[in-house]
Amino acid sequence: MFIEKNCEIHLARRPEGVPDSTCFKLVSQPVAELKDGEVLVKNLWMSVDPYMRGRMIDRKSYVPPFALDAPLEGAAIGEVIESRNPSLPTGSKVSSMKGWREYFISDDKDLQLLPQTEIDDQAFLGILGMPGMTAWVGLTQIAELKKGDRVFVSAASGAVGSTVCQIAKLKGCYVVGSVGSDDKARYLQEELKVDAVVNYKTAPDLANAIAEACPEGIDVYFENVGGQHLEAALNLMNDHGRIAVCGMIDQYNSTAPVPGPANLSQIIVKKLKMQGFIVFEHWEHYPEFVQQMSHWIQEGDISWKETVFEGIEQAPEAFLGLFSGINTGKMLVKLN
Fold first, then answer.
1. What is the enclosing helix (H) or strand (E) of 11?
2. Quick check: 44 pLDDT over 80?
């Protein structure tokens, strides 16, 4: 099968500060004919995630930076529409890191067959994919969550944060989330049943608002934001508290070094454990996670939301929307 028009999103320039639409360009080019052992995949869904901002900077990190004038990369769900590989027949649903494009050819080494479930395919980009796994790893492996813990979650209405809130509630914890709108606050309280919510955009004093929501202090802080959230949480941590550092979106678009919290000595005084983590280093636990999360979903104990943009050409807008907080739950792009 010859694909004459394959639309891709390329990185046109490296952003300084907050990215804008000029950082991206839509490119159309043909897809070659298959060779023996290869498959042609049509992407159905793709993910945009905050960590992608770091890959737009040309620097050494845990994952190589995106190349200029080449397709960006990210998690995607696709379907094999032509196969010359017997292990992946036509019709197979697969996950890959070949997002930001409509079609691609693979020799199967960078593909993973989707498990057979009754759950929608795109869930493997969210609740059953990297965001859900990140929440589970951060709580169970890094923060060593225990029943009765007082848990504070920043960016609590996002794909990771909302899952953290629900897992912590299922484990019998008191849970407080920080969000940026009243609608998101209602979502956390009315649907996810968290115990208290802080709207960091309307709170007159963020530290006081978090303190009022956490009258017995914080045992576990799931960190997605950094900045003032981290400083406030450090002052409220209980002795031997644990901080799982998943992300610091507050710094992703900074153009100069950002001063750290002035109260880092609390880590010593309160004997805190503060650990950053990258979920891909814990992927050996993925089967255990899928089994547990699938059970929770089947029992109706876990729910999730998606914010969906349609069409490959909308992918940059979806990505940029992550930094203005327009999404509730997982931000996805559905490819036509």
1. strand 3-11
2. yes
